[in-house]
Amino acid sequence: MSREIRVIVTGAAGRMGREVIKAVLKEKDLNLVGAIDVKEIGADAGEMVGSTSNGVKIQADLRKVLENTQPHVLVDFTNPQAVIRNAKTALNHGVSPVIGTTGLDEIEIQELRRVADKNNLGVLIAPNFALGAVLMMDFTRRAARYFKHIEIIELHHDQKIDAPSGTALKTAQMIEEEREPFRQGHPEEYEKIQGARGGEWKGIRIHSVRLPGLIAHQEVIFGALGQVLTIRHDSLSRESFMPGVILGIRKILDLKGVVVGLEKILD
Ligand code: NAP
Asked: Is 218 in the pocket of ligand 1 (CB under 6 A)?
């Protein structure tokens, strides 16, 4: 018989948090025991997502929820400022964080590594929980061995705070592992409008589009003599991230230390 995993969600009233609540409520082995947000305080988490009430109310005080509900896993979809504090608080209460929030920098990840090791717990950080996006990054890594002129275009809804996306940065890091950094484009190119050539990360150009109507999309374009290869992934709804989140919740209790990337926990 599978063990029961007690789950709390931070950012519960946000776009992703609501989807996580819906997904967790559908799984027999997962028990939603707490929901934390700075808004919708007092609302019933089940009813908020159009399901039946399970008695979990949205609360603001993470510490209190941790102490009162004794969860195993915290799922965080908040913002780059809140996530680090939430994850450290969870770890110091013996709870493993599954982090979907993007925008954590290397220093913050190191800090989480330290706190995870101190508490002998696992942390999963996945900039993209959609399986198709993980494959898109994997195919990009393979193509980067043969095509060295590469630009990334990531497209997201206009309420996203950080740019470029965590997925775009992760993709750029994977490209860097496959090719030597070099300057793309004409050696004397210049911008008539600042930013026209996008952001630059170790020679890789990243362009961020923000528009209502979009969810999360990315194109990686490879150019070579006489040919162009485009690898594209589209998340058409936030449900696309949920199988990855649920897998993360189930696997995190068997992990130690900080694991970055959904691909690390796929069989
Ligand atoms: P969102 O709709 O703004 O939701 C975030 C929620 O967290 C909001 O309700 C926000 O309240 C709340 N919040 C802020 N500070 C908090 C705190 N200290 N404790 C608890 N809740 C707090 O954003 P979203 O679209 O759901 O995205 C959330 C994050 O997930 C972003 O970083 C996004 O890039 C990332 N994301 C990741 C994936 C993935 O696959 N890994 C997929 C999609 C999105 P206020 O609105 O009042 O601030």
From this structure: no
Helix (H, G, I), strand (E, B) or coil at 83: helix
Q: pLDDT digit string (tens) for 81-133?
A: 999 999 999 999 999 999 999 999 999 999 999 999 999 999 999 999 999 99
The structural domains of the chain, ordered by start, are 5-125+239-265 (3.40.50.720), 131-236 (3.30.360.10)
**How close is the Cα of 157 to the center of ligand 1, in Å?**
13
Q: Which atom of ligand 1 is nearest to 245's Cα?
A: 40
**87 Cα to the center of ligand 1, angstroms:** 14
Q: Which atom of ligand 1 is nearest to the CA of 11?
A: 7
Cα–Cα distance measured from residue 213 to residue 216, given in angstroms and rounded to the nearest whole number? 10
